Amino acid sequence: MQELKEARRRSVTGHVIEFRGARLKSIAKGFREAVVRAGLNPRDVTPHVLRHTAATWSVADGVDLWEVAGMLGHKDVNMIKRVYGHHSPDFMRGASRALRQDF
């Protein structure tokens, strides 16, 4: 978060991402070119895919679902639970524990 504040402080336009002294209107062209330069298929790698990957990895790493929801700009955790919940290390832990009980 400190890096973001520092980038904004140093900016010419007040925006974190600038080009030639002006704010970017869209990242589409630059993102696509970066994907192609990396040798990847731009149909497979999009900003949405990176957003989905960040959410998946965050949940899998045990990040609090409220934090993930906040990172993605959601007002609650319902969608995070529904779409990413199965990546959580706690997913099905209770059911798994119940099946290991000695009878």
TrEMBL record:
Keywords: DNA recombination. It holds the Pfam family Phage_integrase. InterPro entries: DNA_brk_join_enz, Integrase-like_cat_sf, Integrase_catalytic. The keyword Acyltransferase does not apply. GO terms for molecular function: DNA binding. SUPFAM superfamilies: DNA breaking-rejoining enzymes. It comes from the Bacteria. This is Phage integrase family protein.
